[in-house]
Amino acid sequence: MPLNTPIKDWSNKRVWIIGASTGIGEALAKQLSHAGARLFISARSKDKLELLAGALNATRALPFDMTHEAAVAHAAETVFAEWGGVDVVVVMAGTYVEMRAQNFDLAAAKHQVEVNINGVLNVLAPVLPQLIKQGSGHISLVSSVAGYSGLPNGMIYGASKAALINMAEALLVDLSENNVDVSLVCPGFVETPLTAKNEFPMPFIITVEEAAKAMVDSFARGDFEMHFPKKFTRILKFLRLLPYTLYFAAVKKTTGMGGKNARA
To answer: In angstroms, rounded to a whole number, what is the distance separating the alpha carbons of residues 164 and 230?
Structure first.
């Protein structure tokens, strides 16, 4: 039995995608527009948003930086006033800085927390009251498989994405009382500007179009968690179930990281 109401028909659905200027967000906007949805698309890049909005039907650009609380609140007021509500909000925006304990950077760490956690909270502040008032709607938080468990190079990024996993789980329980759906998106490796920073092999990497299609398919099934590509995400889900001694041994063997002092 699905945890959410399946969305199979996007005709005239009012969808707000935050983080739509590049990557999966851009690909999702294109697919939902072609499926008949009405869109507000948001991100920091005004030029990219306006170019995308001009190429899609029934789409308006609404640029802002989601770390700015007042800007997010103003954007939400615009969306709700224009549409009288909203059906689906996808919080896609995020940032990634490769980091290990040996090169810990406090400023970079705080910036990732500011974007990946506090930015989401800035969106939830106006969106949750609106959805609760409506007694309907769907909010989708985009996390990452990096949030499943601790991995090398993802010291802060993974922690911020783990917070979103926990947050989405709590939201599902709370908002079920209000007939509001919640979904969690945990992508593996997808060809985006963020993963382009990686200097290591990325197994089972997929295109943004494939990732967006996986999301649309999950919306149609009413899934709570959307994770892809399955060949990769299922391995990480299995590793998460292992005792720590086995987990750390597997991580060390797979990544070649850990050093001579590693006990795993």
So the answer is: 20
Cβ neighbours of residue 129 closer than 8 Å, sequence gap 6 or more: none
Asked which of 115-119, 158-162, 176-180, 185-189 is least confident by mean pLDDT, the reply is: 185-189
Residue 120, phi then psi, degrees to nearest 5: -65, -40
pTM equals 0.92
Q: Are 92 and 20 in contact (CB under 8 A)?
A: yes
Residues annotated as catalytic (active site), given as ranges: 157
3-state secondary structure of 253: helix
Distances (CA, A) of 70 to 75, 115, 116, 120: 9, 15, 17, 13
* Domains in the chain, CATH or no CATH each: 14-255 (3.40.50.720)
Q: Scanning the structure block, which residue is given the tokens 């509500």?
A: 85
Angle 46-62-170 (CA atoms, 0-180°, nearest 5)? 120
